[in-house]
């Protein structure tokens, strides 16, 4: 308990979604103490939010720049901060805390442009600070198992990487009805040029990258906007070339009526394939060539001891979204305390931004193959 | 945060299972502070466990009786205690805390005999204390939805209640290999006369009772012991009569090779049926007569606002075992703070014991119908 | 093609269900030529039915007794007859054809009483004729695989046999609305004393017997009638004892709202378990103790060559109800031509009747264990 | 029975696959009599095959051209012929029979080039003959239901069409081991330039076209060959633009380890979505925006009477691959007898060839959008 990390938060005021998720994840992990925050640009809401989450009044800040400076000066100042604002604020906030020498945990995507991401990468390197990006699905125990199977060659030569992420909450124009989550996510000023692509497409890409260890070399992408009046894409089809004979495809949609949060990853190798669905996250289908497919389960038969730390309860006792998120916080905590954390760091987050920009470029260029820039 | 409940624990030392689960659940709920404990009869392990969970040395006790007395006298003494020992200690520990005027949260089953349970029921009533029993699956949001559908008549006249709970971890004689969880659960001195019946059969029965609101009137039961050398049952088949034209069956097994923790409930009414599986707990199958069946989801389309408090994250973001357990702790907390909690209290826990005893009696009597006594 | 069997039918007039199924199955098998029939007690419908299925007018008979005599005398008379009438006519019709020296294929259950079944068994033995009973689900390729796995010991010692058969077409009193299939099945004069038990419960029992090779030794049964005004049971719960340490349960229901034709078999042994669902009949779940469960598929990886004859198309090309039925006709044809057919014969069909009678007796006797008589 | 169609076959000798499937389908349909054939270029096998399927020796032909001429001259000559050879023979054989005035049933794809397909289209029109192509999955009852739902507007504006067809039987180089089915399918001389694309990709495309009624306007395609030494593609990713705001993607693979015959179609509209999987063909997932998704079943609740003719048995009694194929034969028969058949005719089959050629062109041109030519 002495290793508890003093922790702050930017964004995450009442009635938001992702800030509370970060807090629940940290609480489930058990190694973070939320002691400072700048929860909202609305001063009253900021105070109220702080009160509800137990942050003392003198650690509540009107703006993140002030928070970074003040906390850096306090002897009991925060060790790390989580940034859970709309996308366009990730960059200035992360920069402020990195410059103040405070480790940063940032919600995805890291920034709204590749250029900003590269600048943060340089800054983090200069400052010697962690810049972790919370691609939470990478915290799932079965995703860790999948990555381990790929790494040990169980799949043989990796041939195909298919990933899809389907939601339907933007199937209608709810941003015009004032739905807060929808409003900023479909506003290019706040979300960036990529809509569905930047919100969940990048989740899908990052997951594929995380599990395979392979960044895409080039992409061919078709972005579509189905909902009249929407200013960003709400569906994206991407063909992927990972080089060395590995191909794939990515489909992300926020107009996929009948899908809640259907992130699904399938990998095919020369020896075996695996498939995972986020909505039933405790199972992994594993099929060897010439064998009947098997359903592996979290903490079940054959689950490797090396991945035990990503499990809290036995097989058959389902873990879910928050547990995966908490696992990620656990890894970030390990990174903060020992330097050995296993999570998406700034280098991979930069690659995610390169993916987004390449998709936009291909879409603008008759769907042609477009290399990922770095 | 001012409503945080000062909380103690009996049992739950390191390397145990259910104690850590109670702690995780309480932490996820966020309203309990663990400040006292008697975690193990082994003094060294008791101290070590306390240290790991952050209980101060002066609040660690060598025995639960002393703990009950001391905490009752302290001005900052615990408001409630969780008892997470093997079954045979539930009764004396619960009695000690109830007599000391401390509310009790007890793992299931309440006791090892109906007689003991009835005594605790009287005591809790006399003392005006809560005696909650953690039938954790009743905390699942979809189980709450199921109960709500039954209560509002969506199923019509309830005809059939089928429940099964299948595990395979006792398919071999691991108690002779020193597996701690197996050892006490298969020892009649610690677990009581009922083995599988008392460990998970009663979970299944309680769940059926909770969702339907109906206790069984009579049972016809066949208990079997498949594993050579085992001293308690490891499989039970029960035919159920709930009266008023509602029948059913229960199957619980701990030798069901290929099943991890497969608790499944199906209800059939004259108008509709529902089905739920604990291993995929965010869905509920709902089929109206003459209609295509629907898959309802936690927090999904049509999920009632009145049950929102059992959800932490949106539809498609799976919640699991710990979230359900945390929901139960949340209800117990509401009970402690407002008297309005919705959980299995001592009266229903007594009925669970009556169920166990009736099954044992039927099995001893040629499978004949046996009424539940109270 | 020279081995085509000259074949007749009793029952199976237009607008019936099972007669047409027998004809489709025989046609898919390809080894039967329908040349004679007594399709209906209504003379006009009898002629019309014959015309539609291509039976020549001189081979259409007003009653089955006359058909048996005439066909036995013709040099080109039928080799075998299928009896697809309501249950109460199975006995007299089967007797007539057996006495005439004609092999009999009878729909299930064989008769309406055990006594009749025993008489047919004697008669078939005296006459040296085949008396096959079309428990069609036993023709499914995966059921054959399941039986083969049990026989070769893949499951280890067989511990549990759980079978259920759920339908909902009798959830309301459609027999009073003149639905023909419902009318005779709920009329004790035509169906026998057992309703759901005799219609589908016996299917479930037979399937368990077929796959395990074990008849039940004793049963404890609860029959219920949920639909007001119905004269036979529409739901049955049976606890099963197969002797030698094998137990089980059977649930059959025709009021299970939301179930179409959900026959499901689960076997648990000391080494492995298997599970099969008729509505997805091309798969079989196979779980070895300590291994991740596998999904075996018809004609898929590891499917044994010895069972190839039960498959028409490759893995992934689903076969269904008619294919299973046709497989059974193929086995009966093999029996007729070579004496080597593998199907439910009269001895097992007698056991099915003993099961029905034991269930009725246990239900009449406070659910007590009741041995199967022979 | 008087309407039975005299029918011939080109290809389909012993040990082949698809010829026997056509014969089983026709037999299950019940309206075709196989009376002539040219089953193999090997004279001995041709005779032997004819004998096994019951074709008289004087109706067995050494080559299809002779067969077409002779049968056209006979008063009892065949009304229709099925061509079930490797792809490269479809064109000359179909031409021969069309020229002889005989209706043609051809396996897919129609030809190996768009040019040939267009020539056959002209010829069929001139001759006034049917040229049906057996895209068998379009015969499935639930596919018919899907098409009907789209047509009646249940999905609203159609936005997305996702189709995939995954197999793994070509995951290794079995063509070099002499596997007959693999050999011709991977030989550009026999199969055409498209490998996986022409074998199953076109099935997937045709299915999407059939259900939506929409041909693709343009495609962006990536063809890959994963297995060393293979001369044709074995995996294809296609992005689809159907015009009028409908987009989609198609993935076909014959190296998808762990997939048997996984054809899956998903359609998303502004009001609802549907999803169908060929390996579980009796169900269709239907999800309306804002409603819990439903599982529709063949012949189940709400199944439209107008589609009854595509069902042989009740809901819950699975139909499969052969039943769908037989339905298609039934529709072709209706076409032959009444002119009202509902099946893929030559016009749509020409569009399928245009799809193949556009994919090849896009793949050769940096994945750029490529319009379908006609």
TrEMBL record, chains A, B, C, D:
Domain spans labelled GFO/IDH/MocA-like oxidoreductase: 144-274
A GO term for molecular function: nucleotide binding
TM spans (from-to): none
Short name of one Pfam family: GFO_IDH_MocA_C3
Domain Gfo/Idh/MocA-like oxidoreductase N-terminal: residue ranges: 5-135
InterPro entries: Gfo/Idh/MocA-like_OxRdtase_N, Gfo/Idh/MocA_oxidoreduct, GFO_IDH_MocA-like_dom, NAD(P)-bd_dom_sf
PANTHER family in the cross-refs: CONSERVED EXPRESSED OXIDOREDUCTASE (EUROFUNG), OXIDOREDUCTASE
Protein name: Oxidoreductase
Phylogenetic placement of the source organism: Bacteria, Pseudomonadati, Pseudomonadota, Gammaproteobacteria, Oceanospirillales
């Amino acid at each position: 308990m002495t290793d508890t990390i003093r922790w702050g938060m930017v964004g995450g005021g009442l009635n938001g979604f992702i800030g509370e998720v970060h807090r629940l994840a940290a609480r489930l992990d058990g190694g973070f103490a939320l002691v400072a925050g700048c929860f909202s640009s609305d001063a009253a809401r900021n105070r109220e939010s702080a009160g509800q989450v137990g942050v003392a009044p003198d650690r509540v800040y009107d703006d993140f720049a002030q928070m970074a400076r003040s906390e850096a000066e306090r002897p009991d100042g925060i060790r790390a901060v989580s940034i859970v604002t709309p996308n366009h604020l990730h960059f200035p906030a992360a920069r402020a805390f990195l410059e103040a020498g405070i480790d940063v945990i940032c919600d995805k995507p890291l920034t709204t442009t590749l250029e900003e991401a590269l600048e943060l990468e340089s800054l983090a390197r200069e400052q010697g600070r962690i810049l972790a990006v919370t691609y939470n699905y990478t915290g799932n125990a079965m995703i860790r198992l999948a990555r381990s199977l790929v790494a040990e060659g169980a799949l043989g030569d990796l041939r195909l990487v298919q990933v899809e992420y389907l939601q339907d909450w933007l199937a209608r124009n709810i941003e015009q009805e004032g739905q807060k989550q929808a409003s900023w996510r479909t506003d290019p000023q706040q979300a960036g040029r990529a809509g569905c692509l930047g919100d969940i497409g990048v989740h899908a890409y990052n997951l594929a990258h995380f599990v395979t260890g392979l960044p895409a070399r080039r992409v061919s992408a078709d972005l579509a906007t189905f909902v009249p009046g929407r200013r960003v894409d709400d569906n994206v089809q991407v063909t992927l070339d990972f080089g060395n004979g590995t191909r794939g495809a990515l489909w992300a949609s926020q107009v996929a009526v009948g899908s809640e949060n259907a992130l699904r990853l399938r990998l095919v190798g020369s020896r075996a394939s695996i498939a995972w669905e986020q909505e039933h996250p405790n199972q992994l289908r594993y099929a060897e060539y010439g064998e009947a497919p098997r359903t592996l389960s979290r903490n079940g038969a054959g689950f490797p001891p090396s991945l035990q730390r990503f499990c809290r309860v036995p097989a058959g006792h389902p873990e879910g979204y928050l547990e995966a998120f908490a696992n990620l916080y656990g890894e970030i905590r390990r990174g903060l305390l020992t330097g050995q954390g296993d999570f998406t760091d700034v280098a991979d987050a930069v690659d995610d931004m390169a993916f987004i920009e390449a998709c936009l470029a291909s879409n603008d260029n008759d769907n042609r193959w477009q290399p990922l820039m770095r």
